[in-house]
Fold this protein.
Amino acid sequence: MTLQTESRRSNRLPHWLRRRIPTLAECSLVESTVKKHDLHTICREALCPNRAECYSKGKATFIILGDICTRGCRFCSVKKGVPSLPMEEEAGSIALAVDELGLKHVIVTSVTRDDLPDGGSGHYAAVIRALKALDPPPTVEVLVPDFGGNERAAKTVLQAGPDIFSHNMETVRRLYPELRRGAEYDRSLLLLANAKRENEEVMTKSAVILGLGENRREIRVLFEDLRKADCDFLAVGQYLRPGMDQVPVSEYVQPDLFCILEKEAYRLGFLQVTSGPLVRSSYQDIRIDDFRPDRCHTGDSSVARRSVP
């Protein structure tokens, strides 16, 4: 890879990772709406570098089932521990917040809830139904955990009718035991593959973060594995260490490699690829109508890609 190692870099981020941070005033609408309805966003809980930018544009990715995760991915800043019981009113609160913000595309994710028999899938379904009851209904993208391999749980979510079913692979097979304890590479792939078999109309999506110690060959294999699972959309971004409790950055990948990886992914057949240092899985909306069966795509980024806002 073309990279800059953390041990050799200065304390400042590479110039391609620096940009203007919107003011608090620009972010106040989303902040106040989330607080008003007692909700959480992954933007805040995961210390996303794009939080201020997305908030300033009136967008947020909601996180349901609390803010405490039962797993401990070593690159993630979401709190780990014993979660509280799910809030029954959360689905209605999210629908109210979405209506107030006027969102046309809603992304909902969650902490992993290994403590719940259904992994929280029933809660996901309730949120999807509440969003679909809005007039007009937004497109709904759910970014789900692996549900511990519980296929019934995944079906519960799919039967509620999300437009996009997303599950992030995050990293390459070799690094799973070290970085994603409790997760399994093949189980995550199977979740995406089974989603497509359960509902061939749902679009599937995954995301990968680079700079954790992977190599080019492993990235290529991961892309190929996702396509074998019939994954439609792919997001590729740079890992940025959210705090000292998380693993250090191994590599700062330069922007030209993200462009190369984007082209490689399109050649493999992904319908949309968003690849860049600051890209995250929920960084951009997807115009779902662009990918309906009656639309023809060549895989060329100029045809299939929507640029990141």
Notes: The chain is about 35% helix and 15% strand. The CA atoms of residues 36 and 230 lie 40 Å apart. Residues 2-10, 292-309 have pLDDT under 50 and may be disordered.
